[in-house]
């Protein structure tokens, strides 16, 4: 999975990552403001991938040699970005994959006669990141599943829209495969909301 650009610009700061966005469009995401693409809910969990009936979790070898079953993330090729080498490794029997396995079993039950669709999913549930989505079970949610029909496309309107929703953010999907995102916390400065 390629890194998805944030819709609005983060101002440059010295020595640390900027905490908030300003009312300026990132050029690679200008298509969103032009009215292209579909807005979908961004779920707050951990990213996974299903490929050929196998579940993978994100893995970053952080400059080290990756394991033999490592699949590089789309768009990274064989080079390392900022000391990171993002990609995927298959879920095994390791203890830290317990909730991935639980969610995958549930997903398999939804497709008793067909293979699970290939694609990326968000693992959410009681033991994932403090469960901000308030799920009762561990589940794999297909990315792009929940369309936000009433989603605006300007800085101030998006900010107001997110303020009124209990969601992590928005991901826009363009028909040609491009994506752009914005999170509710992107509008926070210095830890203060709004």
Pick out its properties.
three-stranded antiparallel sheet, globular, 194 residues, 23% strand, alpha+beta
Structure explained in plain terms:
- The chain is of the alpha+beta class and 194 residues long.
- It has two domains: 92 residues, no CATH class; 93 residues, no CATH class.
- It is built from three helices and nine strands.
- The protein has a six-stranded antiparallel sheet with strand order 4-5-3-2-6-7, covered by helices on one side. A three-stranded antiparallel sheet has the order 1-8-9, with no helix packed on it.
- The longest helix has 13 residues.
- 24% of the residues are buried.
Radius of gyration: 18 Å
Low-confidence stretches: 76-81
Order of strands in the sheet with most strands: 4-5-3-2-6-7
Envelope shape: globular
Number of H- or I-type helical stretches: 3
Beta-strand segment tally = 9
Question: Strand fraction band?
Answer: 15-25%
Largest sheet: 6 strands, antiparallel
What is the CA–CA distance across the termini? 31 Å
Summarize the structure.
With 194 residues, this protein is an alpha+beta fold.
Give the helices and strands, then pairings.
Blueprint: H1 30-33, E1 38-42, E2 46-51, E3 54-60, E4 71-72, E5 86-90, H2 98-110, E6 119-124, E7 139-142, H3 155-163, E8 169-173, E9 179-183
Antiparallel strand pairs: 1-8, 2-3, 2-6, 3-5, 4-5, 6-7, 8-9
């Amino acid at each position: 999975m390629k890194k998805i650009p944030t819709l609005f610009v983060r101002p440059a700061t010295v020595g640390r990552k900027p905490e908030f966005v300003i009312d300026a469009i990132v050029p690679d995401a200008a298509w969103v403001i032009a009215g292209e693409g579909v807005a979908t809910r961004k779920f707050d969990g951990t990213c996974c991938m299903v490929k050929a009936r196998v579940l993978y979790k994100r893995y970053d070898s952080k400059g080290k040699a990756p394991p033999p079953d490592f699949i590089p993330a789309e768009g990274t090729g064989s080079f390392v970005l900022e000391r990171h080498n993002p990609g995927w490794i298959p879920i095994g029997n390791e203890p830290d994959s317990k909730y991935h396995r639980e969610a995958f079993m549930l997903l398999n039950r939804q497709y008793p006669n067909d293979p699970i669709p290939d694609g990326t999913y968000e693992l959410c549930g009681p033991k994932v990141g403090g469960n901000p989505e308030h799920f009762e079970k561990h589940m794999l949610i297909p990315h792009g599943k929940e369309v936000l029909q009433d989603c605006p496309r300007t800085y101030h309107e998006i900010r107001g829209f997110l303020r009124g929703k209990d969601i992590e953010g928005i991901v826009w999907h363009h028909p040609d495969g491009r994506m752009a995102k914005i999170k509710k916390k992107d509008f926070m400065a210095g830890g203060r909301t709004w």
